[in-house]
Amino acid sequence: MTQFSGIQPTGLTHLGNYLGALRQWALRHGPDDLFCVVDLHAMTIRHNPNVLRARAREQLAMLIAAGVNPDIACVFTQSDLIEEHGALTWVLECVVSYGELARMTQFKEKAKGQDGVRAGLFTYPVLMAADILLHGADAVPVGDDQRQHLELARTLAKRFNASYGEVLTVPRAVTPAVGARVADLAAPERKMSKSSGDQSGTVLVMDPPELVRRKIMRAVTDQIGEVRHDPEHQPGVTNLLDILGACTGADPRLLAGEIRGYAELKERTAEAVIEELRPVREGTTALLADPAELDQIRAHGAERARARCRHRLDAVLKVTGLR
Ligand code: TYM
């Protein structure tokens, strides 16, 4: 089995990204798996080149600090394989329809109210499909919000194979039982997100412990006053229970039975999150202090990834009549 997944280097990697994705990758990875810092995706909205460069480094460091071992799995930066990912993206743009892309909810959300929406934002899911299909992944560990993009990648793989022959593996999304959709602490009806203008409900992986504590202690709950796992009527309390459960390995429903009030729930959640994120934050900082080591890891990952995908890209170019 080959797993592939990616994360955008935005500098705002949060607890949702960590519990929904990074930690899942760290918990289970082998020599056939690939994890990628998707810097090409990060330029689909307005960006500053120097900031992008720095954040791609930080995201690579964080992935390793979170526990993805680059001596086991292949850890690489997407733009290091821009020729390969770019080539398959073009081919898949000639497989996908305009209407399919126009239906993507993430595009509609991100494009809303923006001037000069980049075409790259529109074709974003095609680049994502290319990432996955280029590397022959069959499992893609992601949070809930990527399901629609994964469905599109499946559709494109099947359509490509039906038109040109069985070259591409049809992937499937793998989401964690708890933590696939961490909600915003200040507005628990929506997901925790990098792009929500207000950061008070978003715990960043790099936030210092005191700030993490403050954000969690101020989390929105409700007037009911009882600790119950009830996503529909108590989304804020349920979110805290899920976060606590994800950090401690305990069942959130059982936790609901043993915690006496909202203050205790928040205290315990804050402690658990701080302890969970501490090694990731400290490890990221330590790695960033050693640029030579990080450069070496990056170069090694790119070399491995390229060697592994070349034959698949050659097959794609051949069956489509380009070679
Ligand atoms: P990105 O960078 O937005 O998010 C990285 C991962 O974090 C998950 N996630 C969440 N999980 C739980 N709760 C949340 N509130 C939450 N918010 C985000 C996302 O589902 C994701 O798994 N398009 C992708 C990056 C990408 C990719 C790929 C992923 C590019 N190519 C190929 C998989 C395979 C994205 O923007 O993720």
Automatic annotation (TrEMBL):
InterPro entries for this protein: aa-tRNA-synth_Ic (IPR002305), Rossmann-like_a/b/a_fold (IPR014729), Trp-tRNA-ligase (IPR002306), Trp-tRNA_synthetase (IPR050203)
Q: Which GO terms describe its cellular component?
A: cytosol
GO BP of this protein: tryptophanyl-tRNA aminoacylation
Q: Which EC class does it fall in?
A: ligase
Sorted UniProt keywords: Aminoacyl-tRNA synthetase, ATP-binding, Ligase, Nucleotide-binding, Protein biosynthesis
Enzyme Commission (EC) number: 6.1.1.2
Q: Does the keyword Aminoacyl-tRNA synthetase apply?
A: yes
Molecular-function annotations in GO: ATP binding; tryptophan-tRNA ligase activity
Question: Is Aminoacyl-tRNA synthetase set as a keyword in this record?
Answer: yes
Pfam family of the protein (one):
tRNA-synt_1b
The family line of this record is:
Belongs to the class-I aminoacyl-tRNA synthetase family.
Output this protein's name. Answer: Tryptophan--tRNA ligase
